């Protein structure tokens, strides 16, 4: 039997990629970090396709366990690709052809143009990591890689993650935005090989387990005019952090939402860390971003309040904002109304062409 062909993708950074180590430095790119990114996007995609068994919570108590000797051979749609206890991942991820440079450690950014709750300038971790280009190689590891839709799922995940999302860690600080092209047209016809169910997966989508239908994507031309300090401009490297700060401030003082909701959407570093639900990067005078907010589960009733606040601040700090979101009045990209067609648009666009054509 001829072994399955590997998938090779040429990746070029728009903003540095951060993977980090025990010393909180990035001295090399860690492929394991990218595998985690892939699983996140795969789970969201599989939920939007209505796949059963629905992706499990791989870090929870009810995660999949494969044990052929005990007859436990049924695993969820994500673990069939990415593996679980007792079952190997269906592929290996290898990096090659690296050509670039590193900013090994992040420096702290102080927003002197804003005031934090302690009366001092808010602080954020600056963008750092690898800048340049490399090849990302997906090498089939088990026969299951070719079973059913698995290969097409992997292709779709790579497109979404690399062309519309981000790679590595610290994307909330603007790291990991890239451009990518599959070599030998390996992405042609991906959408035609995906099977759609009539409904989302039966598993309830919680605040930690979204469907891709709950994601949003945006781009805009950066504007450095500071509306709170009319006689000063915002520093280029500070702009994404100013938008973050102003969005949090808007939710705190101009809406009636609870503190827990604000922390859920914007993140929180105190009293139990909570990751932000959106990411903003700045490259070539263009703001790029993506995020998610579940329509089901806890805090779902505040979804519009949070996304409208972010959109308001993006419009204040940019021009020609393009926002793509399924089944939403915020969408201004003339997007398809049905999910299969909307997903096809995501899989055939790149972030720099968002809202065009």
Can you walk through the features of this model?
The protein is an alpha+beta fold. It has two domains: 7-109 and 127-193, 2-Layer Sandwich (Alpha-Beta Plaits), CATH 3.30.70; 212-353, no CATH class. It has helices at 31-49, 79-82, 150-164, 239-253, 259-266, 303-316, 339-348, and strands at residues 7-13, 91-103, 108-110, 123-125, 129-140, 178-182, 215-222, 278-283, 286-292, 318-325. A four-stranded antiparallel β-sheet has the order 2-5-1-6, with helices on one face. Helix 4 (239-253) packs across helix 6 (303-316). The longest helix is centred in the first third of the chain and has 19 residues, at 31-49. The radius of gyration is 20 Å and the shape is globular.
CATH topology of the largest domain: Alpha-Beta Plaits
How far apart lie the N and C ends? 43 Å
Give the mean pLDDT.
Answer: 90
- What portion of the residues fall into strands of 2 or more residues? 15-25%
What count of structural domains? 2
